[in-house]
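HUMAN: You are asked to prepare a plain-text protein record giving the amino acid sequence and the backbone structure tokens, both parts labelled.

ASSISTANT:
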Amino acid sequence: MNVKSQFSIKDLENLSGVKAHTIRIWEKRYDLLCPQRTETNIRTYNLDSLKKLLNVTFLYNDGHKISKIAGLSENEIENLVEGKAVASKQEYAIKVLKTAMFDFDEHLFLKIYQDYLSEKTFNEIFFEVFIPLLTDIGMLWQTGTIEPSHESFISELIRRKVIVNIEWAVGNFKKAGDMRFVLFLPYEEIHEIGLLYTNYKLISAGYRTIYLGGNIPLNSLDKLAKLQGDIIFVSYVTMLPEGKSIYDYIDNYQEIVSKKKNCALWLLGNKAQIVDQEQIPSNVKILNNLPHLMDRLKELKNK
């Protein structure tokens, strides 16, 4: 596996949030990092430099002066960061999980997760740490700062944690209503974590779910639409194939799935946010985010 181990100053800017110009000043004034140079005199940084910059940035954002940080040894910097972890737990967790991503260190991921879980619920961890982390990673992947293998590694670890909590929710299920939810991802949609978490929340709220996963063509949902009782289909749309309109997808759903039985469709994800609710059928609902989903579930219970 060819894994990225050399980073440009732009990569460091994307990962740390510190402008490249500032990084250059820190190098020149404080000898903070020691980049290598290419034959064309372009700076390159190794993984150790990246991890040091993440620690320095954490302390700098916590209010420490860069001149003071630069005078510390790497061990002193690491010890100071760990000492600040309690007061800045969220920022520390995200920083360390990025380090775990670059080192492909599952044990470090699990340690931070378990430490956080001792004080927070899984829901809090998901919203305070996992969502910001995945958002950052998605942007880093799009800019070429990290490799697909980095994103896949972290996403898979988070995915496992969601699945463990789904199993817990199933084991502690308390029925709240007769509505059944069918969860699926459209064909070629690859981001599953949001759908998995939605499944967890639906089960936790007391609703039966049928989880189909990814690459589900609309014509395969026809038989499920014919099941007895009320069915709501739920999907995430973040990257439908280029050139395919989300409005066309909704029209196809109406024609294939909801023609004979008017089944509701709830859509979440980035692509759904561009939809004008007034221009689509009333049985199709656009949910802005996961808290919006919970509001919809409360409305169901109150009917």
Notes: Residues 9-165 form one domain. Residues 148-171 form the longest helix (24 residues). Strands lie at 36-37, 43-44, 180-184, 208-213, 231-236, 264-268, 284-286.
